[in-house]
Amino acid sequence: MDRNYRLETLAVRxxxxxxxxxxxxxxxxxxxSFVFDSAAQAAARFAGEEEGNVYSRFTNPTVSVFQERLAxxxxxxxxxxxxxxxxxxxxLVMGLCSAGDHxxxxxxxxxxxxxxxxxxxTRFGVRTTFVAQTxxxxxxxxxxxETRLFFLETPSNPLTEIADIAGLVAIAHAHGVIVxxxxxxxxxxxxxxxxLGADLVVHSATKYLDGQGRVLGGxxxxxxxxxxxxxxxxxxxxPTLSAFNAWVLLKGLETLKIRMDAQSNGALxxxxxxxxxxxxxxxxxxxxxxxxxxxxxxRQQASGGGIISFEIKGARSEAWKVVDNCRLLSxxxxxxxxxxxxxxxxxxxxxxxxxxxxxxxxxxxxxLRVAVGLEAVVDLQNDLESGLTAI
Length: 391
Ligand SMILES: *Cc1c(COP(=O)(O)O)cnc(C)c1O
Hints:
This protein is an alpha/beta fold. It has helices spanning about 5-15, 40-45, 60-75, 85-95, 110-120, 135-140, 165-175, 185-190, 225-235, 245-255, 255-275, 295-300, 315-325, 355-360, 375-390; strands at about 80, 100-105, 125-130, 145-155, 180, 200-205, 220, 280-285, 305-310, 330, 340-345, 365-370. The chain contains 15 helices and twelve strands. The longest helix is centred in the C-terminal third of the chain and has 20 residues, at about 255-275.
């Protein structure tokens, strides 16, 4: 399909292949394997001499449509889909790094990503140095001769710190280092890291790409030369996206643009309200002029996104009181859902990292995170007001 179409058009139509039945909606191919016309064709497919599906651990037509569509949205040559966001990050590291390689990543990464890079990968000889997301000089100073990868996530979770993608790309590329960006919070609707020079984009499709809290999924997008290395690991090790989940995610992508716009608008309104609230000490939201990197966020992102963090005046017991006195907001760690969620990061998503790592990441006991959904903002305000009044 012509990639010059706008994002909302690509999100609805890109990559569709119709079967002999000429179905309008994308078909769901629930099949583990595919049959061949002849022994010779089977041999050619297995040898990779002929294009075509062999086995759904390698490729599946429904998964392929999802990959094509997400690649188009990110402006990527190619995309490989995975069973979850974490398996996308694992597959990226396993595909592109070897024992002895070094990674530079930010201290504010998603908790499981920190565990994967900081603990698990070190057992296989891949070391990571964690630096402050917003300190470009620290990223540069951390580069070693064996540095292979910069891994960043912007805005960060939960403090919404913004990494300067173009600035970090310039530093990395001057040293022959690859840059991968976890684009989970913004999605290509709000931010396109490849346009800013990044080499790869990673997704937890579980979040906004699905958008309705139904399935797990992930993806790595970028030039085919790099995604092919990721695919080599994926098709052998097996953390492949299921056809069913790919089909659900395709339905999610169709409404991505209108959801991202509506959720960002709702978040901005709610962030302004929280900032004016007497029980709130501080609001972290890239769409507010009070955000330390407001100017960078304005340049790099189409809007502030759907996620707000805020510190209440108090400590853990007061933060939990807010959570326990909200009736509408869901107490869950998920984000990117049409249903607004409320999380206390220090005791949930970031509960397994050490208190030192938590404080290095700036996650206090008074911090709460709201991932704004599609409910009326006034209802969210009233619910949070009940929580805040209970302090
Ligand atoms: C949720 C999340 C992940 C992990 O994705 P899963 O689909 O849960 O494996 C990675 N990065 C970010 C920023 C996330 O929010």
